[in-house]
Hints:
Layout: H1 16-31, H2 46-56, E1 68-73, H3 76-97, H4 100-106, H5 117-120, E2 123-130, E3 132-134, E4 140-142, H6 146-164, E5 167-168, H7 177-182, E6 189-198, H8 214-217
Helix pairs in contact: 2-6
Amino acid sequence: MSEYRPIPLQFERQEQELMRLRADELLQQLGSRRSVRSFSSDPVAEELIDRAIEIASTAPSGAHRQPWHFVVVDDPQLKKQIRDAAEKEEQRSYESRMPEEWLDALRPLGTDAVKPFLIDAPYLVILFAETHQVAADGTRSRNYYVSESVGIAAGMFIAALHLVGLATLTHTPSPMGFLRAILQRPANERPYLIFPIGYPAADCQVPDLQRKALDQVRSRNLEGRSEES
């Protein structure tokens, strides 16, 4: 077991006004991010995908186990297999698995079981969560806070893609075990998210949605406390 060996933190404090300007700029940039379901077939430099994965991999993780693995897919046959399998699961979900309340919540988004973006987007990136690590000799060791760690990495991946100028969507057909079978991934990996990635189609449209205001998503101290506590 390795020992704790601290190193000096590389951190530079900024002037308050510069920090405010950066915060405003980030809010404007990320505030324009939208989930895209209509993609152009224009090619995308794979280097940009790799950089976004590297950025996502700077995310904090339980015990620094980094329990994620990104599989980049651009093979047309693999993309077709993924689409076919995903649509089968989605069809079952829309027809019988989803309660009416869930279907009502989805109607403003205009989604259905047909997922052409799974082949239209130049890349699919499938994010897997590693339940445990396996050493070269077959020894297993547990990963910690896997869902939380992978969720943070996924959010950073989405932000990175948007800030470099690409569009994406978080797609979660359920169940997703077919992804591990199609991509022949090891048993310690479970599918977490599918990200179609590319440029939006020229005629791309998105739902007319409004995000919650700050005072709806933030409280201070005991504001909004439950009367039952």
